[in-house]
Amino acid sequence: MKLLLKENKILLFILILSILVSFVTIGGRIGVETKNKSYDIVLDYNEIKAMADQSEHDVSWWLKQFKDMGITKVGLAEENMVSLMEGTDLPINATIMDIITREADWEANYPEAFIQGLYDHGFDRYDLLIESASKETFDFVANAVKERYQPDRYFISPAEDGGFIVLDGTAKETLYSEKYKYLNSMKKGFVEKDEIVSSKLMYLNFGLLDSKTKIVKDAGMEIIPRTASYDGWNDTNYAKAVIASYQELGKVPEYMIVGGESVIGWDDGIDVAKDYITENNITIGLIENTTQLQNILQYGVNDIVKSTGYDAVRIFSVWDYIQNRYQYYGYAGAKEIENTLFRAVVERNVRLIYFKPIKEYKDQHVYVTDVEEYKTMFSNLETRLAKHDIKFGQASVMENYQVSFWEKLAMVIGCIAAAVLIIDALLAIGKKYKWLLFILGTLGVIGFYTVLPGYAEHLAAFAAAVMFPCMGILLIVKQSKEFGDMEEPSVKLVKIISKGIILLICGVAISLLGGVMTAAPISSANFMLEIDIFRGVKLAQLLPLAFYLVVYLAYYGYRTGKKNPGRLEFHDIRDVLYTDIKVWMILLAMVLGGVGYYYLIRTGHDSSIEVSNLEMIFRNMLEDHLTARPRNKEFLFAFPSILLLVYTTVKRLPLWPIIFGLASVIGLTSVVNTFMHIRTPLYLGFVRTGYSLLFGILVGIVAVVLFDVAYQLYKKLERQISKNV
């Protein structure tokens, strides 16, 4: 250790300085997170209405109940042809012209004046024909079409009791059925077909119905209008007409929750929407994806968020698969939906919940209409969130925190110093080559930052995510080997356990520094709002595993032992390459490969492996009783493996050290991985790691004792067999 400090004083100073820079950066982020402590709830009107229709009460009664729970905002979607036809009793209908013109005498079904006007205007199979048998309904749609859309895109033909409206569609806007086959008498495919069944024009917005806005206002609740906008029908004129309709509500909406493909006016840019939002201090929402990774893509939203200095909130929409989690995992009531909302707010920086009512488990159509279930769920949620100092009220907006270029550069240079120290520890490259590597690495980083400045934070974070676990690996392999060389196999178990615990704490501390160094460069608002995410999660987990095999070879050698432990020599690699492959080696490699593959696909934001029900129940139990849930793989598997690594090394047991060593690497990388989830507040990462370490020590002690008992029984059995022979 003294030699390390003496020979590498400057490199260690650079590394320590970069760590201090990361702590300053992290301190600024923590200051931002401590102020972001209130959440809000917006109800989905249409789904509340659908639930009311299945209950004994009307929608007004239900809105009053939710208001009594403290919820004061209702998301009210603008009407389109689908909602008018399916959600109201208004006498209106719409059909795509392809379907209408399939009948030979279709023209006979319409007034002669309309047919003449239609031919004069021109039409094709992609157009949408709207028919209304009520003047009031016709005027509602026709006026909206005139106000919002370009005159050359529609044809209006009023009648005495209603009228006709034709919207000009294109093949791009048309919706088709899935391909299907016609079969012959031998049940063999004859021809494949698909059919025109509808059009995106069915979803064009026409405004809010007065009858619905009156219900919400009479309930004393605030309307959050939701407008769905679509490409080609979303110009500046459309945006201004939408804003005019908002102004008629008499109150500026607190939030803008964009619907459809884009913000209003996107065909001509974001200026109209941005000006409306900034002039009225409206907070725009970023709707979290169904996979809970990043936000759904809506054109113009990210542009507005960036242009307003990240004056935005993340929104958790209760998707249909979440609605169905009633009595899920065997819980009574809506416990798992409550858990889902809790995690969204606490762990993912969500500050606005767009709530849709609960549905029966595995039933997409039957709502839970017991109001007590909702009262219990929201009351429990508020109580649990209060323990994290998060209060129910107006959604808080995160400050626009940005990590400077120089902070990122300082941190990545520190990682270069760490890389040089690691290389020197294995290869003893000498002072001259150490500085040559450091200078070349620094120049390479400066060049990279010059050419690709937008990737500066990604490079800094990735470098830290790899380098610090590698330093932890060097420590645990070096120290466990030294313990094994210094101690006799008969040493007391208490001494082995105590050394294992100390080594575990040191290894986790190094990885925790790596977690801070990984999180710091990507702690800007765009990452915390998940507009951008850290890339390279799986590679950052894989490289330390590969590095462990190299370090193990350097310290333990291959079969014949090591004359110079800690130095990777040519004959180490040669011995591995010249190995005669045995069947057991292939089987072991297959097992380790399978475990490694499962570990990698379970790692990261977008794992395709579902967590088992039993594991989820166990996770929820920990979540209910602890400030932050420790990671199962850390305290049940990886951290105890460090104690077992020390035990099996001291006992001179073959093969076991490499297996437990690989398992321990998973723990070191997992600690860093915790801090790659930038949306998660930092204090949770520290608390989670602390719990994992504490429980890992306890589980590790039990594991070592049980392993020792099994080993002693094995030795006893071995002696008995040798006597009998």
From TrEMBL:
Keywords: Membrane, Transmembrane, Transmembrane helix. The chain crosses the membrane at residues 409-428, 435-452, 458-477, 497-519, 539-558, 583-601, 657-678, 690-714. The keyword rRNA-binding does not apply. InterPro entries: DUF5693 (IPR043748). This is Uncharacterized protein.
